[in-house]
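As the next step, I selected for study a record pairing a protein sequence with its backbone structure tokens, which the following lines show:
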Amino acid sequence: MYKDNVLEFLKILYGNNPPNGILVLWTKPGNKSRFFDVNHFEQVADKACQLSQDYDVYFGVGLLAIQPEQGRGTADTVVSIPGLWLDIDILVPYNNAKNKKLPPNEEAAKA
């Protein structure tokens, strides 16, 4: 993961003047959540790049009103969604046993 890519991603999603809210980064394995003020793109990018050395890093796209005591937040705590997105899983070692019907690779998922 490269910091410039993360910053570009965040600016595309939230613009140069994002609404107030809490952005969630979470990692697998372990499902650990980390919370940031969405206005601190540099901190988010630095942490995402650092974590990507050892974990799969995921961004919660919906901004939260409050930081939850546990988990990543719920629909009730989301105050802003920057647009419509799609999450497509592909067949990889950590989810092979769960769902053998997943597409085998990115090209198949796009098709």
Summary: The mean pLDDT is 89. The chain has two domains: 3-80, 85-111.
